[in-house]
Write a structure and sequence with these properties.
The structure is a homotetramer of 145-residue chains. With 145 residues, chain A is an alpha+beta fold. In chain A, strand 5 and strand 6 form a beta hairpin. Chain A is elongated. Chains in contact: A-B, A-C, A-D, B-C, B-D, C-D. At the A-D interface, loops of A face loops of D. Strand 2 of chain C pairs antiparallel with strand 2 of chain D, so a sheet runs across the interface.
Chain lengths: 145, 145, 145, 145
């Protein structure tokens, strides 16, 4: 049965969770976290989501020639984050297409939602969209299920 | 007549234009520009758009206690940018609300559209949304007209 | 005796250790980690060093009006880091002055030294150098001892 | 005579000058420019210095397989920069070695020195130091003269 292949709790339909700390580099002179820093946080979340599935991107690119590029994204900022905050990034597969994956992601702090985002990522080979390898598609469908 | 108030060509209904160069710091190991770098480019475009209207943000914050924060944004990435590219940022006011402004922005290179974005910015005073001052609203409506 | 005050192993003369992962944001189009990213890594290391001594910088600034600013630094880059690398930041107090602290820091990967740095940080109040509070000086001397 | 080969004013022994604006992205919650942002500014200065000598780095890397990497640097921070500041980066060749170049660089605002740096850059081919091509060495020696 499918569940036997699953090695960790975050694959059980619940989103992948990743925690990070806010440092000086993430803030701006408003005193709060710079709006573009959230995109870096979300990208870390997706990278850790892939790593939890044994997909280190550097190695994957070396083996398959496939890199992932962000094709589109939307983000709503609800509350601010500040220096020293401990943030949680939640990553969930929303849709799987032929050459692309859409992630739903959230940034929260102590249970309060700070930002929510939709990020569509496309697989590229030699600069052109390429069909996701079957083994990856299977794992993505598991998560989206 | 309205035109008499206008001091520079970019207010004639056409978008504000701003050029920038791509440096090492903007790229990532894919060899191209990192997706979050575009948000920094767009923010520079909005800052220069404000400066062209005599609204330096540091001075404005000091005088009025009002800061601008990004409330939501969406961006489509169509083509990649690379090291040494000269990019053009176009900024246009799409909508003016009571406490917020929605910008339509484009990133292009030699006439080719690389990315397009919608960015909603809200005016904050003591951390809460505050009505835009009348003088600013008038200038924004001119641009959106 | 002095040792009784010590709460954690990293104060025993050995440097404070902190691990971090390399993400897309840290790399550039050379394929490796951008040279300025190391300064962000070192700053995270100093922030965690302070946090391990119950000195959250946001709270400390709020309570004392004192912020820390980098006054000078030197760094030698010996080997490159790349995407997905797990790096260790080691932070050690090299010297304590009246208003400043000099840190010796190292970046390593699996035991290999990648970069070493000296960073002098000064305490500022209202923009001017200010004498470090006695309680902090005592803790710093412990670490430098 | 040597001067005949020189095509632009900045090669006359005086340093190359490059101006840039401070944006939100460059600042941190202290209200001022983040210390690592200066390294990005200095790198832009070196890139523009190379461009003024017809050395676009992306094209140069494609043609020769040579990339430049920072080997070591030291920087002194004297005064702070803030949002909206217009900064000048001055770049001068201090020393030319077989495979490396040492730059002396300064960051100033309206004539006030904010930071000064020494940056040693090494030419790499396939990850190893490689002798600078003769044509480049000649131009570097002109500048250092």
């Amino acid at each position: 049965v499918r569940d036997d292949k699953r090695g960790d709790a975050d694959r059980e339909g619940s989103p992948h969770r990743f925690e990070l700390r806010v440092y000086y580099e993430d803030t701006d002179f408003s005193g709060l976290v710079y709006h573009a820093s959230y995109l870096r946080f979300l990208e870390r979340g997706r990278t850790e989501w892939l790593r939890a599935r044994d997909l280190g991107q550097k190695q994957f690119a070396a083996e398959t020639g496939i890199v992932f590029a962000v094709k589109s994204l939307s983000i709503d900022y609800r509350r601010s984050a500040a220096m020293d905050d401990l943030l949680r990034i939640e990553t969930h597969v929303a849709n799987v297409g032929g050459a692309s994956v859409e992630f739903a992601q959230m940034v929260s702090r102590a249970g309060d939602l700070l930002a929510s985002a939709r990020v569509r990522v496309v697989a590229l080979k030699d600069g052109r969209p390429t069909r996701l390898p079957g083994a990856i598609r299977a794992r993505l469908h598991d998560d989206a299920g």
